[in-house]
Every structure is written in structure tokens, then in C-alpha cells.
Amino acid sequence: MWVEGGRWCARLLDDPGTGTVSAPSRGACLARLRQMAGADAVLTVEVTPDLVGVAEAAAVLGWDKRRIFTYLSRGSFPEPLAALASGRVWRRDDIEAYARTWRRRTARAGPRPGAEGAV
User: Fold this and answer.
1) Are residues 66 and 100 in the same domain?
2) CA–CA distance, 96 with 114 (Å, rounded to integer)
3) Residue 15 pLDDT
4) According to the 3-state scheme, what is the secondary structure of 23-80?
5) Across the strands, what pairs with 82?
6) Is 114 part of any domain?
7) In whole angstroms, what is the distance from residue 32 CA to residue 94 CA?
8) pLDDT, tens digit, 9 for 90 and up, residues 87-97
């Protein structure tokens, strides 16, 4: 299963002639896949995670790429899933979870002295 254009997609690997099913949710896509496979079929679902590189991680956080490298060097950024020749990659879910945590933490701390909007 994978997400494409905001929709969940899947296919049966054992029967390549059946094509691909698509639905707006993971559950609905799985239900369509089960219907296509038959009631007695045993399904093994493999989900391909959405991956992001440094540029996409920076966009999720609203940062520039240099800031990602700063936090990586401090050891305060999630470990990458892999370090490829073209750069590091993370699961999008991991970066989005980090972004939520980081935003909550910085909201509690309030503005830094000397920062725009600080008193």
C-alpha cells in the first residue's frame, strides 16, 4: 500500500492482472483489496512510508536547510532512516511528530529575549 495524490493505493502481487485499487482512506483501500482477493485469501500488507530529505524536512518545520544540519550536529534531531549518497532521509511521520513536539516546546518557552515580539 502507498499514498499517491492524497489517496491510498494497493495491488495484489500474486495476481498482477487485477490492477490497482484506490480509496480515500487506508481502511477503505484495504477493504477493496480484500474484496478483490476474495474472502478466503490471506493478505500480507506492506506499507511504503513517505520519505523526506533535508529540503522536505526543512519545509515541514518551516526552517531552512542549514538549521536541520545544526540540529543534527547537536544530536537534537531525529536519526535518519538512511544516509544515502544523495543525503539523509527520514520517514515523513517522524519529522511531522518532531515538528509537533518542537512547536509545543517552543510555545511553552515563549519568545527569546531580543527576538521579534519579545518584551
Assistant:
1) yes
2) 28
3) 72
4) ECCHHHHHHHHHHHHCCCCCCCCCCCCCEECHHHHHHHHCCCHHHHHHHHHHCCCCCC
5) 89
6) no
7) 28
8) 999 999 999 99
